[in-house]
Amino acid sequence: MIDGLVAGRLMGEASRRVDKAGRGYIVARVLARNRADEEFIVNVIAFDEAAGQALVALRDGESLSLSGGLTPKVWTDKQGIVRPSLDMVATHVLSAHLAGGG
To answer: Looking at residue 47, what is its pLDDT?
Structure first.
C-alpha cells in the first residue's frame, strides 16, 4: 500500500455499511484528476470514525481531500478500454465543512 493524498469531488453519496462482525464503516467514490486532466476513480473505505463522519456529511459533487493508504488498480469499461483506478483506506478527510467554510 502507498501513503497518498487525493483531492477530488465526491461521486454520489457516501454510505454506511456493517461487516459480518457488526463493525461499521463508510464507503464512497471520489473523482480525481491528474495534471494531464485524466480522470481517476478512487474507491474509498473509511474505518476511522472521524473520517467516516466527514464523508457522510458531504453531498454529491462536493470537493474534498483525503489521506490514507492507496492501492493502484485497473478496470475495463464497456468499450473494452482498460482504465486506472485507486482503492483508498482513508484515515483523514478535509472539506469546506470541516474547515468552517460551510
So the answer is: 96
